[in-house]
Amino acid sequence: MKFEYINESLNWAGSEEVSAAYYHAAAARARKLHAEATTPRLKQYLRQLITKLEGLARDVQTESGFS
Q1: Closest-CA residue to 24 (of 1, 46, 57, 2)
Q2: How many helices (H) and strands (E) does the chain have?
Q3: What sign does the dihedral 23-26-28-34 (CA atoms) show?
Q4: Residue 6 in contact with residue 34, Cβ under 8 Å?
Q5: Phi, psi values for residue 28, rounded to 5°
Q6: C-beta neighbour count of 57 within 10 angstroms
Q7: pTM
Q8: Torsional sign, CA 30, 41, 52, 35
Q9: Can you tell me the distance from the alpha carbon of 31 to that of 11, in angstroms, rounded to the nearest whole number?
Q10: 31-59: per-residue pLDDT in tens?
């Protein structure tokens, strides 16, 4: 499934420094998948993933001094 790709990407992303742009792009991909999702469970999962990705992007921006 498409959403497994995003989840797998997050698993390795924690071990390396990743830019805020990476997380923003991943959140954008998840938003596209959310728009195409047909089941409530998948929509819920993608909303949670989007929230997590946006939070990670904010954290990276805060740590690097960008706003």
Answers
A1: 57
A2: 3, 0
A3: negative
A4: no
A5: -65, -40
A6: 20
A7: 0.72
A8: positive
A9: 19
A10: 999 999 999 999 999 999 999 999 999 99
**What is the C-alpha to C-alpha distance for residues 57 and 23, in angstroms, rounded to an integer?**
5
Amino acid letter at 35?
Answer: A
Residue 31 CA neighbour count, 13 Å, CB half: 9
Beta-carbon contacts of 31 under 8 Å, excluding residues fewer than 6 positions away, are 46, 50
In the block, tokens 């698993």 appear at 11
DSSP state at residue 17:
-
The one-letter amino acid code at 15 reads S
Q: How many residues does the chain have?
A: 67
Nearest to 10 by CA among 42, 63, 54, 61: 54
d(CA 62, CA 8): 24
